Amino acid sequence: TVSHSLNHNMTLTEFKFIWYMEYSHRMWGRVVGLAYILPAAYFWRRGWLSRPMKGCVLALCGLVCFQGLLGWYMVKSGLEEKPDSHDIPRVSQYRLAAHLGSALLLYSASLWTGLSLLLPRHQLPETPQLLRLRQLAHGTTALIFLTALSGAFVAGLDAGLVYNSFPKMGECWIPDDLLAFSPMLRNIFENPTTVQFDHRILGIASVTAVTALYLFSRKVPLPRRTRMTVTSLLAVAYMQ
């Protein structure tokens, strides 16, 4: 195979390290699935779930199974023989982004559901300031999600290896080969230079949006829990 001809110097110990990483990831995924599905089935049988919660549990259960299926579909793309290509075997960046996006949705939905049950909802007066803060928070969430997905394209194309200087990319602010592919739309998903450039821009935009959200939240009277959340978000964004 192409993989064997490229990695003929690999020792058995080196191969085992890669194999166990993949095997551990699969096993951990299955443990996560069981840790969700078994208690959910137990709570359902005992009649502890309300009708809306049953719908929520089924949706999350479906998402858990879909996540596993997407993982298999992603790995499959890295095992297909490509007779026209002698490059290092790698999974499709599209499937990698789908797998990561699905994981983020599953995690966010699980966390949201858990916190909704554990913490009572704050009843705040719907002031124009609060509505604006909520809109800004939703917009920031979407931007962070998009940034994370663009990171999957960077990983899938090894785009991080193209330029390793910041804030410039090499000697340029805007690289010459940014739109080298045709048609133009292909560059966003398949040109490593463009993929890295987009990820940088989205990352900077995300940090800017989080900072703006934090500064705006200081002007709005908020409960202590909400204020702690916004401050934590700011800290994590800058750490990232």
UniProtKB/TrEMBL annotation:
Listed pathway(s): Porphyrin-containing compound metabolism; heme A biosynthesis; heme A from heme O: step 1/1
GO BP, one annotated term: heme A biosynthetic process
UniProt subcellular location: Membrane
Segments passing through the bilayer: 27-44, 56-75, 95-119, 140-163, 199-217
Cofactor(s) annotated in UniProt: heme b
Top-rank taxon, per record: Eukaryota
Catalytic activity: Fe(II)-heme o + 2 A + H2O = Fe(II)-heme a + 2 AH2
Membrane topology per record: Multi-pass membrane protein
Record-level GO cellular component terms: mitochondrial inner membrane
This protein's name: COX15 protein
